[in-house]
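Example record

One chain of 514 residues, shown exactly as stored in the release files.
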Amino acid sequence: MTQGVTRAGRKEWLGLAVLVLPVLLISVTVTVLYFALPFLSADLAPTGPQLLWIVDIYAFLLAGLLITMGALGDRIGRRKLLLLGATAFGITSVVAAYAPNADLLIAARALQGAAAASLMPPTLALIRNMFHDAGQRRMAIALWAAGFAGGSVLGPIIGGWLLERFWWGSVFMINVPVMVLLLILGPLLLPEYRDPAPGPFDIFSAVLSLAAVLPVVYGVKQFAADDFSAQALLSVAAGVLVGIAFLRRQRRLPHPMLDLRLFSNRGFTMSLVTSTLAIFALVGLFYFIAQYLQMVLGLRPFTAGLLTLPAAGSALVGSMLAAVIAQRVRPGYIMGGGMMLAAWGFAVMSQIDVSSERWFLIVGLILLGSGIGAVQAVASDVIVALAPPERAGSASAVMEASTELGGALGIAILGSIGLAVYSEQFVEAGGAAGLPPEQALVARETLGGAIGVAERLPDQAATVLLDVARTAFTSGMQVAAILGAAIMALTAVLATILLREVRMDATPVDSRIE
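Predicted structure tokens for this chain:
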């Protein structure tokens, strides 16, 4: 126990359960939609690019607004921002559930992502305020990280159960009762905290932060779709320039929205990078796994969701073990080991094809979940520990923005690469032969499109088309898994080397500067 520090009691631990609710739900919302994609495709008939936007616009807006919301919570109160966000998230979930077409669903998902941005920063920042003992804080953050990582895997299970009983909009409606519960319990169990001397809120910085993220993300998507077009290049360049302007403004302001001094600490920066890359690879691969289980193996949604449960359980175990091991082992070694474990998981997943046994998938998911669960728990604790209490909201927002952006880019980059491999192999294998041009175009864009085309063909032609499409899709998933394994292994080495001197009891950044 830390000397002279008040230990948290029952109220604080109950409050932690309340704080895990929005994190779990936000994480579930990112992946729950994966299993609804076949139903969306049948009902709303989105194009390939629209399908990707439906999945990732939520995370793009969430990432783009997190820094703004973290700074806002430090100023107006973290609990207040959390409750306002819960209200907005519930309302936008209803709008998404009843969207009548793909364009309106994309717009609703964007609004939902903006609402989610006001939910995440207060959760981790309030943990810093509620748990002052280092050991208790470490365990609390491990539980928080387990909720974040586990929610990504529980999404398909919840979604599968709902989709077998209700329409696809039910995957959004589950948010409403949870937000109502948060609104009831939050004022009773959570303390209020705000920066005692926050300075004015800089609206121009908020605009710059959003204007920096969105063009870069749009450009990355266009690179994959248009083969490095001039429009995509200009978009990325514009985002980078705005990002530079944002950073220059933060350096000049007496009360910046983003305190750049946090990045002067190697532990803070490398933990941020490690966490981001872990989520990048995980979410990018899960984009394929959900479709593989349903469209390639032909499993019912709920059964497919259950097969991802080992990843959720192992993420919880990995988080808890990491919190215990961190009492004796430095965080760099734990994060390096976790990333290497995840690399093995990706390597296993890269060997899966249309005829693989299910146990092979389960082994890969267990390795992935345990490794990334450990990384998220330790990285989150290092980032929070190195931030002073009054900057906890901003530091939390930076971490969550980077991981959310990592997840969104994982879908955009790995998803686009996988779809490109699918399209190329589909054409090379003759999948489009004999099809009218319109049907050939739809079939080679996505596996869901190919299945829709096959439903209108004679049995023998449909069988040939589905065999080609499923084999091509699995090849795309294998390429995504190979890239994920390479990213994990390289980051494992860098984290171990660059974080080997960082300790969990490190001094917060600002206390060394001011």
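Notes: Residues 459-498 form the longest helix (40 residues).
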